[in-house]
């Protein structure tokens, strides 16, 4: 079980890991050893997450989520398979914890009368400065 919070945990069977060759520098090792990890988690069909969390996770994940609703996390930061595996799982936990946070509803507000007056006053002053720039000097 992958612990997210006290109440939420993901079953290991819901996670799919594939080990692939990492890109970038790595010497002779890079062409022989599959150290990068591709972690796949089917968000849309997961029974471990509440529906609201799943919806927020799909929104947060952006382009990391496929059309079928599978979240793909690719970890290749480290040179060992085990560290990349831990990194991918940590990033998944971080994303889910972010989705657990319910954003506050925005309350629409109006600017105060004083704020509107300050705004108009600033515009008038600015217009006055520009008006002074337009006036031509007289050569009398």
Question: Layout of helices and strands, plus pairs?
Answer:
Layout: E1 2-3, E2 9-10, E3 15-20, E4 36-42, H1 51-61, E5 70-75, H2 81-100, H3 113-134
Antiparallel strand pairs: 1-2, 3-4, 4-5
Helix pairs in contact: 1-2
Structure description:
Helix 1 packs across helix 2 (81-100). It contains three helices and five strands; from the N terminus they run ββββαβαα. Helices cover 38% and strands 16% of the residues. The chain is elongated, with a radius of gyration of 27 Å. A three-stranded antiparallel β-sheet has the order 3-4-5, covered by helices on one side. It is an alpha+beta fold and 140 residues long. The model has no long low-confidence stretch (mean pLDDT 83). A hairpin with a 5-residue loop joins strand 1 (2-3) and strand 2 (9-10).
């Amino acid at each position: 079980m992958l612990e997210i919070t006290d109440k939420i945990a993901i079953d290991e069977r819901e996670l799919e890991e594939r080990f692939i060759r990492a890109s970038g520098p790595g010497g002779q090792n890079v062409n022989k050893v599959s150290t990068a990890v591709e972690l796949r988690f089917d968000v849309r069909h997961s029974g471990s997450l509440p529906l609201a969390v799943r919806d927020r996770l799909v929104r947060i994940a952006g382009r990391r989520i496929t059309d079928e609703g599978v979240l793909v996390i690719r970890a290749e930061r480290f040179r060992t398979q085990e560290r990349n595996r831990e990194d991918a799982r940590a990033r998944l936990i971080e994303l889910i914890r972010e989705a657990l946070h319910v954003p506050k509803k925005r309350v629409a507000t109006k600017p105060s009368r004083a704020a509107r007056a300050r705004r108009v006053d600033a515009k008038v002053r600015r217009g006055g400065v520009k008006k002074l720039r337009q006036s031509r000097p007289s050569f009398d």
